[in-house]
Amino acid sequence: MNTPQKAPLSEDAILQVTRQVLERHEGRLGTLLPILHGIQHAVGYIPAVSVPVIAQALQRSRAEVQGVISFYPHFRETPAGRHVLEICRAEACQAMGAEQLAEQASRKLGCDFHATRSDGAITLEPVYCLGLCAQSPAVMLNGKPHARMTPERLDALLAEQGVQA
């Protein structure tokens, strides 16, 4: 799940969070993904300043850490918008109209998938199954799932959150 934008932190605060997350996983094997999740949960994204600290702590190259961050679409390298809209792209949702929802959202919000609108109000992300296949198409707004979505319901949901098209 991609979390909405958190209050911006200073570089020192980001480094402190990074070190705290690293300490929680110290001495364990296979901790890169949990560390990245922990940092993103705390900060809202994986700041570039965290990468060399993570690499050094795990005795990996910066390229290895950066490669994992860029491989998984869940990880963000920049802050998300104040709101995050995820539209399910799995087969069941596609069959029930998710493609039309995606096109509408992109057009009305003025941004494509993996992007944040220029005013920082909203980030649009694809997600590949919310587990609501029997109630498709589904979206998630700010971490809360919504099923049986229609273009009209999507407009109303965004308006409830103060997101204007």
UniProtKB/TrEMBL annotation:
Its cofactor is [2Fe-2S] cluster. The keyword Iron applies. It comes from the Bacteria. CDD domains: TRX_Fd_NuoE_FDH_gamma. SUPFAM superfamilies: Thioredoxin-like. Gene3D superfamilies: Glutaredoxin, NADH-quinone oxidoreductase subunit E. The keyword Iron applies. Keywords: 2Fe-2S, Iron, Iron-sulfur, Metal-binding. Belongs to the complex I 24 kDa subunit family. This is Formate dehydrogenase subunit gamma. It comes from Mesopusillimonas faecipullorum. The lineage of its organism: Bacteria, Pseudomonadati, Pseudomonadota, Betaproteobacteria, Burkholderiales.
